[in-house]
Amino acid sequence: MFRQLMFLLILIAPFTVSAQKYVMVWSDEFNTPGLPDSTRWSYEKGKIRNAELQYYTEKRLENA
Asked: What is the mean pLDDT of the chain?
């Protein structure tokens, strides 16, 4: 019985897996001159996430 179930699972498995189709729902490409819109974008000060080795400073906006 176990062998039959395993055979059935192996036979059916390729048909049950389907490729995921991703649809982009939002994007902002920053294709305007100057800085990004500050009402929609900001930066984080210090080392907040991901244990990054770099971090942004508040006084040097060109780094952000």
From this structure: 75
CA pair distance 13, 2, nearest whole angstrom:
16
Other Cβ atoms closer than 10 A to 44? 10
Question: 41: how many CB neighbours lie within 10 A of its CB?
Answer: 11
pLDDT in tens, 15-64: 655 667 888 888 878 787 887 788 888 777 767 777 777 766 667 766 65
C-alpha Rg value of the chain to the nearest Å = 25
| 56 three-class SS | strand
The answer to whether the CB of 44 falls within 8 A of the CB of 37 is no
